[in-house]
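Data deposition worksheet. Section B asks for the primary sequence of the deposited chain exactly as it was used as input, without tags or linkers unless they were present during the calculation. Section C holds the resulting structure in token form. Section D is free text for depositor observations; keep each observation to a single sentence. Incomplete worksheets are returned to the depositor.
Section A, Depositor: J.P.
Section B:
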Amino acid sequence: MNTKIASLAILALAILALAQVEVATAVTCNPLQLSPCASAITSGGKPSSACCAKLKEQRPCLCQYMRNPNLQKFIKSPGAKKVSSACHIPYPKC
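Section C:
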């Protein structure tokens, strides 16, 4: 009986852990969320911690942004590559 209860508890914990991972990976793609990075991208300056946090959050969306003709000039710019590098976030290969 105790083995069954322990097995159910482990299964319940595993399900909860998987559910939290799924919630953590869900992101709403909104290029305006990258506005803290605008000055660093355009001036080549050091990105703020807020910029790096938003860049990390929006990382799953970067390829979508790269396909947008209105955003390409910013996302594919040398400044954006520098910001990505300074934030230790790999530049996307789409």
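Section D:
Residues 8 and 14 are 10 Å apart (CA to CA).
The longest helix spans residues 2-25.
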